[in-house]
Amino acid sequence: MAHTHPELPYSNDALAPHISAETLDYHHGKHHAGYVNKLNAALETKPDLAALSLEDLVKRGASSGVFNNAAQHFNHSFYWNSLSPSGGGAPTGAIADAINSTWGSFDAFKEAFTSEAGTHFGSGWAWLVKDASGNLSVTSTHDAGCPLTDGLTPILTCDVWEHAYYIDYRNARPSYLAAWWELVNWDFANANL
Ligand code: FE
To answer: C-alpha angle with apex 29: 127 to 118, nearest 5 degrees?
Structure first.
């Protein structure tokens, strides 16, 4: 089964001024596309893996031999949906209740997530995740790492690879994180909860 590079769920200028069309042209059109192309090329030599869904490939972890490209495909697809032109602001619905019961307030959660994303060393991802008991937590993964591999359910993600923000914010990851909060898609978070 060839994996498909998904279209962005909005136009490439829809996240501006927080994330520019140029960033999305490179990040979605070059980086994400490259992971999908490399994944499909690698699977041509691994027919035993070709029938697996993307999620099942990621759950196999490094033993599959295609983990980095598979997980980067999953992570980026998840990231585009974690953002929305009509996102931002405070959460609503079940995710708001779950955040308040876990962290005490939205502001406390925002501080915890921003700290995780801001202090993550090097390339990787910050996540809001749910464990098998339904408990929420904030975590981060290195490089292509994905919570699916650890049996966790992703709720939201923020890509903290420099390619996510270097065009718009150069080395200022905190400015990019502030932009992420202006775009965070609470409808997607509620759907994943
Ligand atoms: Fe990325």
So the answer is: 30
